[in-house]
Structures are given as structure tokens and as C-alpha cells.
Write a structure and sequence with these properties.
alpha/beta; 8 helices; binds nicotinamide-adenine-dinucleotide
Length: about 280
């Protein structure tokens, strides 16, 4: 690994598991000091201890304004600054294939973590960065936020809002030297990607993920399972000066799933055309 983030201080919310965990590990490998913020104290604390002196953990609920302010203050007091804010923490919602069946019971929770949490993290980080030479803010969106479809509608709406919010903040904060971008993962194997419900065992989660794979691949041109490290690499790019000229962008990391229909309908269209021409000229 290189030293692309040497001298930088980063916060990774939701850094105890999944994509945030892989990103925290990558940032440290690239020379950054990192504060992992998560509501999962057990895994967050253990990861910080494992990664050593360059890492701290703070038990944080990203939907609480006072806790987000305390998080920024903690990073500055522990490491002397804040240059990168990765607002990664997020939650999915109960699975309802059709919206008529959705009781909207988790509306507030999803919006408070996925949208309010991102807004608070962006605002509180920017208040520090604007007085201290700028920085890079990265928000976790999803292809579900830009690709229309059925199911998990509240989640999709929360991620669509994150994409729009990211672009608005890029315009507002450019004057302070703060860049704001977002990452839209496709399907990446983490606990979230099995839509875990209450009482589900690890075995159930793994079986669901295995059953989902061929369905996912049917809609994904690259027949390769996305990994948390793919997202960590993208976050590294956005955090570092390699992306110095980029702001207000959504970087999509999805194996081509949102590029279009992977089934080449044109072949069928061309075959139908050829058949009709042959029939008519016979
Ligand atoms: N895995 C995917 O396929 C996928 C696809 C698209 C988008 N995303 C987005 O990427 C981000 C990370 O997802 P993941 O797959 O790593 O999920 P994950 O469930 O593995 O990890 C999410 C982490 O966020 C933490 N968290 C949840 N609510 C929190 C809160 N209120 N305060 C602090 N921490 C909280 C959890 O404790 C957990 O450590 C999310 O925003 C998610 O919506 C993931």
C-alpha cells in the first residue's frame, strides 16, 4: 500500500462492519489516522484495538446531532484536525416487494440514519473544514437511489435524497475548498445485502445471499461479486488528492448493473426484422 492519505485525519461512520470497516482499514494502510464511529460498540472497539495507534473508536448514533458534533470534536482533539468525512452508516428496511404492502413502519428510522445522519455529518464536518483549509466529504448512496424499481422504496428515496444533497453541498461548499461526492454501490456482500430481519442467524443470511447471487448476476454485466474492498478503493480515490478536481459526483460501483439492460434485445429485434423481410419477400 502507498501513503496517499499521509498526514490526513478521517472519520468513517458505520466503520465497525461491511463497507465502512474495509474503508477504515484501507485508509489506515494509506497513512491516515481514522476515527471509527458506529453504534456497534463491540465490533467497533475491537477493530480499533486491532488497527492500533492510528485509530480510535467512538460509540455514535449518526442520527443524533449532539453525538455527531461530539464525533467531530473528538477527531480534532485526538488527532488535531479533520480532512476526510465518510458518511457511510446506513440501514436497509423491511422487504416489501410492492409498495401497497409497505406499512412504512421503518420510515423514520431509515430517513434518520440514511439522510439526516448524512446531513449532520456533512454539516458538522464542513463547519470545521471551512475554517481549516477544506477537505473531502464522501456520502454513501446506492444505485437504488438513481435506478427506479420495486421494493425497499423508503430506502431508495433516502438514497436518492443523498445523491441530490451531495450535489447541492458540492456547490455550496466549493467556496471553502470542501469537495463533496457520493458513492453508489451495487450489490456488495455484507450483512446488509441479505436484508437481515429480526432473529435471522448467520447461516440464514449466508443461504439468502447464495440464493440471490444468480438473480443479481442476471442483471449485472460483470459476473463478479462486488467486495467491500471495491468500495474502499473508491473512497480512497475520493478522499485523496487524486480526485482534486472532482466534486458533486456520484461514483457508481456496480459491475455495470445500472449501465442498461444486460440482455441484448437488439439481437432479438434484428432476428424478428430478418424473419419478417424473408416472409414478405417469399
Ligand atoms: N452492501 C451493499 O450491497 C450496499 C449497496 C448499496 C449501498 N450500500 C450502503 O453502504 C453503506 C454501508 O453498508 P454496508 O453494506 O456496509 O452495511 P452493514 O450493515 O454491513 O454496515 C453498516 C454499519 O452502519 C452502522 N450503523 C447503522 N446505523 C447506525 C447509526 N444510527 N449510527 C451509527 N452507525 C450505524 C452499523 O452498526 C454497521 O456497522 C450503507 O449506507 C448502505 O446503505 C450498501
Amino acid at each position: 500500500m502507498g501513503q496517499l492519505l499521509a498526514g490526513k485525519v478521517a472519520i468513517v461512520t458505520g466503520g465497525a462492519n461491511g463497507l465502512g470497516r474495509a474503508t477504515a482499514e484501507r485508509f489506515v494502510a494509506e497513512g491516515s489516522r481514522v476515527v471509527i464511529a458506529d453504534r456497534d460498540g463491540g465490533r467497533g472497539g475491537a477493530l480499533a484495538a486491532q488497527l492500533g495507534d492510528a485509530v480510535r473508536f467512538l460509540l455514535t448514533d449518526v442520527s443524533q446531532a449532539d453525538q455527531m458534533q461530539a464525533l467531530i470534536d473528538f477527531a480534532v482533539s485526538e488527532f488535531g484536525g479533520l480532512h476526510v468525512m465518510f458518511n457511510n452508516a446506513g440501514v436497509s428496511q423491511a422487504v416489501h416487494p410492492h409498495f401497497v404492502d409497505d406499512d412504512l413502519a421503518d420510515f423514520h428510522k431509515v430517513m434518520e440514519v440514511n439522510l439526516l445522519g448524512v446531513m449532520l455529518g456533512t454539516q458538522r464536518a464542513a463547519r470545521h473544514m471551512k475554517e481549516n483549509g477544506g477537505g473531502s466529504i464522501i456520502n454513501a448512496a446506492s444505485i437504488g437511489g438513481s435506478q427506479a424499481g420495486c421494493g425497499i422504496i423508503v430506502y431508495r428515496a433516502s438514497k436518492a435524497a443523498v445523491i441530490h444533497f451531495t450535489k447541492c453541498m458540492a456547490i455550496d461548499f466549493a467556496q471553502y475548498g470542501i469537495r463533496v461526492n457520493c458513492i453508489s454501490p451495487g450489490n456488495i456482500q455484507t450483512e446488509m445485502s441479505a436484508f437481515p430481519g429480526q432473529g435471522m442467524t448467520e447461516e440464514m443470511i449466508e443461504s439468502i445471499q447464495a440464493a440471490m447471487l444468480p438473480i443479481r448476476f442476471a442483471a449485472q454485466p460483470l459476473k463478479r461479486r462486488g467486495t467491500p474492498e471495491d468500495i474502499a478503493s473508491t473512497a480512497l480515490y475520493l478522499a485523496s488528492d487524486m480526485s482534486a478536481q472532482m466534486t458533486g459526483q456520484e461514483l457508481v460501483v456496480d459491475g455495470g448493473a445500472s449501465a442498461g439492460d444486460p440482455v441484448n434485445r437488439f439481437i432479438e429485434v434484428a432476428q424478428a426484422r430478418a424473419r419478417i423481410m424473408q416472409d414478405l419477400s417469399a
